[in-house]
Automatic annotation (TrEMBL), chain A:
One GO cellular component term noted in the UniProt record for this chain: plasma membrane
CDD domains for the chain: TM_PBP1_LivH_like
Keywords: Amino-acid transport, Cell inner membrane, Cell membrane, Membrane, Transmembrane, Transmembrane helix, Transport
Residue stretches spanning the membrane: 12-37, 148-172, 202-227, 239-261, 281-299
Family note: Belongs to the binding-protein-dependent transport system permease family. LivHM subfamily.
UniProt-listed InterPro entries: ABC_transp_permease (IPR001851), BCAA_transport_permease (IPR052157)
Protein name (Swiss-Prot/TrEMBL): Branched-chain amino acid ABC transporter permease
Location (main, coarse): membrane
UniProt entry tagged with the keyword Cell inner membrane: yes
UniProtKB/TrEMBL annotation, chain B:
Keywords: ATP-binding, Nucleotide-binding, Transport
InterPro entries: AAA+_ATPase, ABC_AA/LPS_Transport, ABC_transporter-like_ATP-bd, BCA_ABC_TP_C, P-loop_NTPase
Transport recorded as keyword: yes
Gene Ontology terms, MF aspect: ATP binding; ATP hydrolysis activity
Record SMART domains: AAA (SM00382)
GO cellular component, one term: plasma membrane
Protein name: ABC transporter ATP-binding protein
CDD domains: ABC_Mj1267_LivG_branched
Keyword Transport: yes
Source species, domain of life: Bacteria
Species, as recorded: Siculibacillus lacustris
Domain called ABC transporter: residue spans: 5-249
Amino acid sequence: MFDPYYLQQLAIGLSQGVIYALMAIGFTLIFGVLNVVNFAHGEIYTLGAFVGLLVITALAPPLLVVVLVVAAVGAAFGVGLERIAFKPFRRFSDEASLKSRAMRESTLMSSLAVSIVAREGLELAFGSQMQTLPFDQLINKPIALGPITIVTGDVIIFAVAAVMLIGLQWLLTRTRVGLAIRAVSANPLGAKYVGIDTDRTIILTFAIGSMMGAAAGVLVGLYYGAIFPAMGFVPGIKAFVAMVMGGLSSIPGAVICALLLGLSEGLATTFISSNWADMVAYGFLIVTLIFFPQGLFGAGRERV
Amino acid sequence: MSALIEIDHLTRRFGGLLAVDDVSTAVAPGELVGLIGPNGAGKTTLFNLISGFTPPTSGTVRFKGEAIRGLKPHQIAGRGLSRTFQNLRIFPNMSVFDNVSVGAVGAMGQSALGAVFGGRRRSDAITARTFEALERVGLTAQAHELAANLSYGRRKYLEIARALAMKPDLLILDEPAAGLDDSETAELARFIRTLNGEGLAIMLVEHDMNLVMGICSRVVVLASGRKIADAAPAEVRADPAVLEAYLGVEA
């Protein structure tokens, strides 16, 4: 009665959603929770994939080692990114600069610039075409689940996304570092005067978020088997959409919206055509912004 | 008794404007000192110099005998100097408890690994400090409410509690009575006196003359960046230079 084909499409959509979610978690931590406009997250993801390629071709270590090495390099990239594109704009900490939107949002341009330089740099080094990852390292061994088939990567990516989500929620709500991150994002000056090292808190947040972004890049690379310098762009946009739909500061909200996006794209591909998939995703964004300007899970960020 | 904070020939120039001009004064441990002056007198700049927010053009600030030049605001705060703000700087989306525990965390160190893996004992100490500070300002019952849901007056106490959670040696209150009605101001005055009575040194910047004159043991008056008086309230009230600065007439 119910065609397993549709179930299979749902599974594909869901796995796409989990991939978006993987990207959206680190993105939302920096952009939404820390309240810093960062458009270079997609390139951290791409860099993570390329570092993974280098590590795999040089040493061919087990997957866990690859992910850990990439995460460590990603954290370093995050610290570098913060230093180049964000710290210079925190030089001025007087009231007027702190209140200036231009000052806060100038990192939109600087992070975009870093992302373009990183992407072009990768193209110079590797060329713009697809790079294939060694076949035996890929995470696409099929697993049959009754009438539908998923691959090992679906399970791994789901597990990693779940660990990241739970880990971050724990970090943000249960630890002193998380408390400092939330305080700095709410009011940097207030945090400073009660002894919080705002610079260090921001750097640490970038390190954590970028670590997750880079790990996401290598996992998705291993999932699809091919990587290329512009691969971070589309997931970056989707993560952004998921974050906005989820209410900016809510990581669980962003994850749920990323899953919704993936599912709706899967359904659009099934019932309409794959050309309409993006249309549906952005349609969702527009509908959300019209009817729920605070996002679906937004706490309503009140400014005092 | 040596001074808790010594301000020595402190000057801050912004372009052609001398915002703070050669100001010297000191606060002894346990003292309650008021800082008044007409708008634009340099009170906020002086506070910013003391708390490390703005570097001085010349002069020095010594806190507990150590020069604080070059230290960042959070480092100065960590040494026992905390402050509140004229326009509140609380964390609206966080619970009352979390707001205050940021102060405790700020004072007790926040090494990244220590914070994630740090012992139970330290987090228990932070929780204890937080509840102690909440108790002081009477916000224990609202500990789990969002800070944004508190009334304006209560938020002022929340900010004070956050500063108290640092267990500071010197507390700087920047216009704490702004926006409060008379009975709230009277309550605040009693509270400031109680805190001071327990040995906490307080510097109070305030427009509300009655509040400052009523509770401070000494009042420093700034006008156009210069210190024009530094004496007991009764003396300051009778000082011709102060009258001139406030009323703009030759006394």
